[in-house]
Amino acid sequence: MATTAALAQPPAPLVDAAGLSRPRRARLPVPRPLRRLAGPLLLVALWQLLGSLGEIDPRVLATPGQVLAAAWDLARTGELASNLLASLVRVAQGLAIGVTLGVVLAVAAGLFRLGEDLVDSTMQVLRSLPVLGLLPLVIIWFGVGEEPKVALVVFATVFPVYLNTYAGIRGVDGRLVESAKVLGLGRLALIRHVVLPGAVPGFLVGLRFALTSSWLVIIIAEQLNATSGIGYLMNQAQAWYRTDIIVLGLLIYGLLGLGADAVVRLLERRLLRWRRGFDGN
């Protein structure tokens, strides 16, 4: 009873150096999105400060204020929207083909040993090839239009999706498979209710890498024989030493990658409600 009474008592007030008690201050919780933005905002503030003090030459690196002014000018003339749309269309087309192809190949190699023998060794060889090193060959195959840019995105996205989805299929717990067989599930039901759901986490990891790779590739592809796109805009700005437009293009690519990662996180919360993992608390 004494222990219970002691636990029920409120915490003792804080005591200062003079021996006087003072009330304990309640801390206001800071929203997590605000905490995540604190680091980038401090970096931008320091960047602006150094530029305003003349410590950074605008011809070498434009200040955030100059970047915002360039964004306003390009948005007002419509150049920013048209070039951004061109980049989004190319990435969307390449992702649609690359992700679909990666999933199909991963399912074929993960579910069937013959598929593994025919597909996995070939994919392991091809994935070691440098994507940008294929650019001259892709131009010879597809010309200098839209096809080579989309093809490079496909090549950059198919392998992360394949490797992680294949690993997810083969990493399904064997005890679950045995339990499903004991319950009388046939092969198709086993694949549908056990194997494929168990491979979803691996697929989402591969999708996240694929989204990042798509933007890394398109920024280079659009600077070669392109007439539109954010990469084309940056290439044109390089000729006039417009570092404000170049930095703006890089920021757009970064924000697009951040948005794509947020979409994958949303999918993870929706599709993986059954899985509870460590969240850093």
Features of the shown structure:
single chain, 281 residues, flat, disordered N terminus
Q: Your description of this structure?
A:
- This protein is mainly alpha-helical and 281 residues long.
- The chain has a single domain, classed as MetI-like (MetI-like fold), CATH 1.10.3720.10.
- 73% of the residues lie in helices and 1% in strands.
- The protein has 11 helices and 2 strands.
- It has a two-stranded antiparallel sheet.
- Helix 9 packs antiparallel against helix 11 (243-271).
- The protein is flat, with a radius of gyration of 27 Å.
- It starts with a helix and ends in a 10-residue tail after the last helix.
- Mean pLDDT is 82; it is low at 1-7.
- Residues 80-264 form the ABC transmembrane type-1 domain.
CATH architectural label = Orthogonal Bundle
Percent of residues in helices: over 70%
Using the CA coordinates, give the radius of gyration: 27 Å
Q: How many strands in all?
A: 2
Query: Do you know the CATH topology?
Result: MetI-like fold
Counting structural domains, the number is 1
How many helices?
11
Strand content: under 5%
Summarize the structure.
The protein has 11 helices and 2 strands; from the N terminus they run αββαααααααααα. Helices cover 73% and strands 1% of the residues. The two termini are 33 Å apart.
